[in-house]
Amino acid sequence: MAVRKNQSALTADEKRRFVAALLALKRSGRYDEFVTTHNAFIVSDTDDGERTGHRSPSFLPWHRRFLLEFERALQSVDASVTLPYWDWTVDRSPRASLWAPDFLGGTGRERDGRVSDGPFAASTGNWPVNVRVDGRTFLRRSLGTAVRELPTRAEVDSVLAMPTYDMAPWNSGSDGFRNHLEGWRGVNLHNRVHVWVGGQMATGVSPNDPVFWLHHAYIDKLWAEWQRRHPGSGYLPAAGTPNVIDLRETMRPWHDTSPADLLDHTPHYTFDA
């Protein structure tokens, strides 16, 4: 059984193996396929049309499957690797360990956001940004610039306390747990973190930054925590809802998985705490 660990608890060898697997996927071209997929759904997911990966109830199961696919790709390189998660309620500073040169590298330089240290810096030649929204071919970050503070644990708990998964109109205007976690309403959890990191993380090609996977692994962990707190409250909507994915409808691009298939993460992985 795979165990997803807090990045702050990774050993030096676990960090090295995770980074090496990322770099191997990048060299093979497989990494960029994940970036392309995510960007395609960001572009197509709209409040008043079909929406699958974002702005919709399937935001959480879609990303759970997306992370599973990526984790399996990493494990095809190194079977010992699992996705770590970043608890941004604790590791809240640009000086936190995940931004160290031996792991993800730090923030970008002021004039253009270019990351200059760590294994994904442009100077290494190992991390060209090929799927992009502009002409810049290097990884960019501006930690804590566009928004100063990451979400707090009290804000997380306020969202976890919401008993209803989602509700009409099933988009970025909805009330309920999913939309407050995604961040279109209320205290803004998921979206705020993307903006706090900045650079490509604030765009549809956010998986260009490896921290995307750690962030979404934590979002997935929060969904699992919400499920434990509210065992009688499942995925909504169940059936007959235009433009969004009902409980047992399949989700593009896989065509073999519905939200119902992803409500329980435990057949695939557990969390360390």
UniProtKB/TrEMBL annotation:
- What species was this sequence derived from? Streptomyces levis
InterPro entries found in the cross-reference section: Di-copper_centre_dom_sf, Tyrosinase/Hemocyanin, Tyrosinase_Cu-bd
The lineage, from the top, is:
Bacteria, Bacillati, Actinomycetota, Actinomycetes, Kitasatosporales
Keywords, alphabetical: Copper, Metal-binding, Oxidoreductase
Supply the name of the protein. Tyrosinase family protein
| Cofactor list | Cu(2+)
Q: Which family does it belong to?
A: Belongs to the tyrosinase family.
Query: What PROSITE patterns does this protein's entry cite?
Result: TYROSINASE_1, TYROSINASE_2
Q: Which SUPFAM superfamilies match?
A: Di-copper centre-containing domain
> Which residues are in the Tyrosinase copper-binding domain?
54-71, 209-220
